[in-house]
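Q: What structure does this chain adopt?
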Amino acid sequence: MGGACRYFHPNWFTRYYWGFMASVNLAGFMADQQYGVDRSKNPNIMWPWWHEIMRKKEKGEIPMEMPGYMLAKFRNECEEKWTTQRSDEFSDFLNVMEAE
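A:
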C-alpha cells in the first residue's frame, strides 16, 4: 500500500502537524523565559489610566453617571456620536483628565 514512501501516511497529521504546533508553543515559552516576559494578569499595571478615572469618580471630581468613553483619548465613530449628543450634559467635566 505504498509503505513509508506514501505522501499522505495515516500518521502524518498526528505526528507532524501536532509535533510542529508543540514545537512552536515550546519555542514561544522558551523565548518568554529567556527575555523575562511577565505573563501575570494584573489590571493595576495594565490599565492605570482607567483606575485614574475611577479614583476621580470616587472623589467626586467626575460624576458617577458619566461614561468612561467620553474621557478616553481615542473614540470610534459611534462613541463620537454619543459624545456630541451628551457634551452639553457633561461639558464641565470633559477636560478633567487634561487638567493635571
